[in-house]
Amino acid sequence: MGNFSRNTFDKLKHYVGVRLQQGVPIVDADWNELEDIRKYELQAFLKWFVGSGIPQGNDGFHILPAVGDNDFVIGAGRCLVEGWDVINESNLNYTEQRLFNEAGLDEAWDVAPLPALTTPAGARTDTVYLDVWEREVNAAEDFDHLVNPAIGIETCVRLKREWVVRVAEGAPPPAPPSGHVFYSLAVLSRTGQAVIPVEAITDQRLTGLAVGSQLDIQQITTDAFGSGYTLDHDGQPDLKVSLRETINALLRGEIPSTPELALTTPQQDNQPFALEDSRGDLWVFWYSFRSGNYDIWSKRYSRATSTWGSDTQLTTDTQQDYYPFALEDSSGDLWVFWTSYRSGNADIWSKRYSRATSAWGSDTQLTTDTQQDYQPFALEDSGGDLWVFWYSSRSGNPNIWYKRYSRATSAWGSDTRLTTATSTHQDYQPFVLEDSTGDIWAFWTRYSYSSSDEGGFSGIWYKKLIRVI
Q1: Range(s) for CATH 2.120.10.10 in the chain?
Q2: Region of 195 on the Ramachandran plot (φ > 0 left; ψ -120 to 50 alpha; else beta)
Q3: Each residue of 138-154: pLDDT tens digit?
Q4: Which option is the CATH number for 269-465: 3.40.50.300, 3.40.50.1000, 2.120.10.10, 1.10.287.180?
Q5: What is d(CA 147, CA 132) in angstroms, rounded to the nearest whole number?
Q6: How far apart are CA 295 and CA 49, in angstroms?
Q7: Exposed/middle/buried for residue 204 (C-beta within 10 Å: 0-12, 13-18, 19+)
Q8: What is the pLDDT of residues 423-432, one digit of tens each?
Q9: Mean pLDDT throughout 71-96?
Q10: Which of 400, 428, 432 is CA-nearest to residue 416?
């Protein structure tokens, strides 16, 4: 460390300059505080009025594929990180960085080492991020520059801004250590290969940073989209499709839309079911083979942050779970129903998400017969009771059955047969609603067969459960 008398800079004092008086000694603390004030003011301007990202006119720190295993190229250029200007003079590989190649440099700089990247055993998402900090340089490292030969001693030390590109494998970046700032550069979607191809790299940088007039931006957005148009917290527009594409779609008589986007990484995911809860969040449920057998999974879209959460496995048994159906009840709790083979034959199961505890409860088996129960459909009536309908072959051929959950007793009633299809009929695919009078309408598909008709005919049937007042 340099030999300093004291450090007097305090940003909370809001000093903007240091004025030297005549006839007094010049001390290092005053000189250094002046430097700290100027530096802090510039950093604050860049951070709050320009932002973090890539300044307009260059493509700095663009992560690109490299020749070789577990490596990538770091593009030349500039990047602003929390008001610090970071410069990469030329393209270089991850494995060409000084911290990667010079043994003991991490200890000399008092920073974490830079390890070699690993080949994942399967699918893995890595985050590439820029780590920036500042360190002191003295004459021991830069003698020719810091020692004036006419004096022969070190008069001042220097502060140098250092950076390194790191990778958080299978996880988001950790919290920055004291004195460091981080900036995400890219996401690597790795699939068990040692080479990182271009299609596995998703750029995360905010590019085109420039100092512009906020009034000009507001005027442009108001003219184009109306006075209610805003930007998201990430600086991206609320409208996720270009104005040109929107106008062209309207001229074609079509509805403007966003591009097709993958919600899950392909893992034999099937039959999505979605709902919007009372808070405006979206929930998507599906069944997937990613755990080695079919289970029910879910994913939640937060309206507050405009982001999707992670994939969540709701069932973990060793059998097969299919056909999810979900609803939110009047208390704000979520109910998920599905068909499972865990009891040796197909039965209807359920799981409840408590709004009070923000946690899922245990799996509950709703039907226990020795036949096959499929394709649950549920609703909550105006009295707060839940109804679950399904089709079952327990009566010798497929019929529609239902079960009712009483809000007053917090208990499920018995299984009740709704339809009476005979040996020449089969009932499937229930759909149910409650009308404005409180009556329950059930609709289903009935297949009819005869001895002379092998193909059979299908028709839509219905039945009404009358509310008794």
Answers
A1: 269-465
A2: beta
A3: 999 999 999 999 999 99
A4: 2.120.10.10
A5: 27
A6: 48
A7: middle
A8: 778 999 999 9
A9: 98
A10: 400
